[in-house]
Amino acid sequence: MxxxxxxQLIESVSQADDIINGTAKPSRVTEFAEPQVKAIRxxxxxxxxxxxxxxxxxxxxxxxxxxxxxxxxxxARALLKILDANPKYALEALNH
Length: 96
Description:
The structure is a single chain. The chain is about 65% helix and about 0% strand. It is an all-alpha fold. Helix 3 (about 50-55) crosses helix 4 (about 60-65) and helix 5 (about 75-85) crosses helix 6 (about 85-95).
């Protein structure tokens, strides 16, 4: 790495520190909409119990998501996005 690139890297780390510490604002913020779990489940035509099995979560967790008390994260959120985009093929791929 040449010296100019190193200086740019140090500057970007300094800017990140300022953002984290609240002394600067980020140039952009990306926000992702919460998945509408109940609507996604409705697209599949599955019961809560069956849908929870497909996602690999408990029925109670699914209920919490549907009622907005908790929110899916990580792989569950990704799977919900796939199910929302194409429920038929997603369920087919999951062998359900």
